[in-house]
Amino acid sequence: MSKEFRKGDKVEWSSHGGTAEGVVEKRITERTEAAGRTVDASPEEPQYLVRSTKSGGTAVHKPEALRRK
């Protein structure tokens, strides 16, 4: 089973310039619009809306791309 995160969890992920850090804002479990794109998520394959602590911007990541801080 893949990793699970909750709202408020501090995470990091690989980014263009190295490693980015942020906080999980939401677990997405259905097809929806988030962070400027269509997210094709499901209860079996959730994705996470994360807010960057550096830029304040949001991004959506699959759980395997995130690491707990």
From TrEMBL:
It comes from the Bacteria. Residues 1-13, 23-34 have a biased composition (Basic and acidic residues). Residues 8-66 form the Hypervirulence associated protein TUDOR domain. Residues 1-69 are annotated as: Disordered. It holds the Pfam family Hva1_TUDOR. InterPro entries: Hva1_TUDOR. Transmembrane segments: none annotated. This is DUF2945 domain-containing protein. It comes from Kribbella deserti.
